[in-house]
Amino acid sequence: WRIIFSVISKSAIMKIVDKKKEIKKHLRQAKSIFIMSHKDLDLDALGSSLGMYFLLSRLHKNCYLIIDDKRHELGVAKVLQELDGCINILTSDKVEDNLYIRQKRNLLLILDTNKTDLIQSSKVLDFFLEDQIIIFDHHDTGATSIESSLRIIDNEVSSTCEMVTNLLESYQITLDPYYATLILAGVVLDTNNFTLKTNANTYYSAYYLAMMGASSKKVQYLLKQDLKEYMERQTMITNVDILNEKIAISKGSPYTIYRKDELAKTADTLLFFNNIELSFVIGKINEKDVYVSGRSLGKYNVANILGKLGGGGDQMGAAARISNSSISKVEQKLLQILKKEE
Fold it and tell me: Which of 50, 115, 110, 41 shows the shortest CA–CA distance to 83?
């Protein structure tokens, strides 16, 4: 089994290996390294960020996590509470004060997104040149993608956590079981318990993390759901329309504000129903913005569809935020796009 997994591993990290020398050169030269992901952190964003933080700590680097979010989903909140005081977390307005005195020795790592409008703070980009930014992501690029001389974007992997696992393995670093668990939680989240966008490389990453002591019991603890939120998602599922017997479109209440992860989990759930190949969930995430979360089993490219609403993602998972609109108007625009696709 070790021999088999070793062969799989070489295939899994090919895209990382292609840039391994460049990555190591950047990390070696940097004195202060800042890690930033997308707004509304999920366990893939946080798990990959913490995996990178662990790697940099082992390399004796000054490293910081940039987090501006005020509210967190349940799993992320649990992790941040457990790590309170153990890692360096900055808000974006504190970045300038922590830059290394020689500007060229600073580095910014952007994980689990490549879009300017999705990162925790676009203002942070002003402190770094293009050759001081490295992007690790598994979502497709788009019009608002961040300019960087080193972008490692692999939309064939399950998650950014899988990418970071490959990088950690290339450094031959033994993970602390706690961090291995957090990274595994990100893989489990983005694959919906290994049911979506999962291949042999994904299983190898899970195996590697388990070998480092990742706890499946702890993963389930982090993925536990709030009962009230679960019931609200069940209500959304009952308000669903089926297009051409294979596309499910669900809508939230216009009087309720939802978190992005709630809409995403509902879209995941809809794919489990018979004949459904594509799902969309529409809901308000604040008073001004309507959000659409989309999921596909692979026949449809959901990123192309939601890209026409100004969104992005990859073939099997994508989202879009539409400002100054309503749920019904967004639904009508989505239906028009889907009819053209069909």
Answer: 50
Give me 237's structure tokens.
Answer: 């599922």
- pLDDT for 314 equals 83
**DSSP code string of 18-58:** HTHHHHHHHHHH-SEEEEE-BSS--HHHHHHHHHHHHHHHH
Is pLDDT above 60 for 268? Answer: yes
227-249: burial string, b at 16+ Cβ within 10 Å, e else: eebeebbeebeeebeeeeebbbb
* pLDDT value, residue 246: 94
Number of Cβ within a 10 Å radius of residue 274: 6
Neighbours of 126 (CB within 10 A): 9
- Write the pLDDT tens digit of every residue in 170-199: 888 888 999 999 999 999 999 988 988 899
Report the half-sphere exposure of 158 (CA within 13 A, side-chain side). Answer: 30
191-199, Cβ contacts within 8 angstroms, sequence gap of 24 or more: 191/158, 191/159, 192/268, 192/271, 196/158, 196/268, 196/271, 196/295, 196/297, 196/316, 196/317, 197/158, 197/314, 197/316, 197/317, 198/158, 199/158
Q: What share of the chain is helix, strand, coil (3-state, %, to 5)?
A: 45, 20, 35
What's the confidence (pLDDT) of residue 16? 66
pTM of the predicted structure, to 2 decimals: 0.81
**For the residues of 188-237, what is the DSSP string, one character each?**
HHHTTTTTSS--HHHHHHHHHHHHTT--HHHHHHHT---HHHHHHHHHHH
Instruction: Report the residue count for the chain.
Output: 342
DSSP designation for 149: S
For 58-88, the pLDDT digits (tens) are 999 999 999 999 989 889 999 999 999 999 9
DSSP letters, 101-138, are SSGGGEEEEEES--BTTTBS-GGGGGGS-GGGEEEEES
112 — alpha (psi -120 to 50), left (phi > 0) or beta? left
Amino acid at 305: I
Label residue 158 exposed, middle or buried (CB < 10 Å: 0-12, 13-18, 19+).
buried
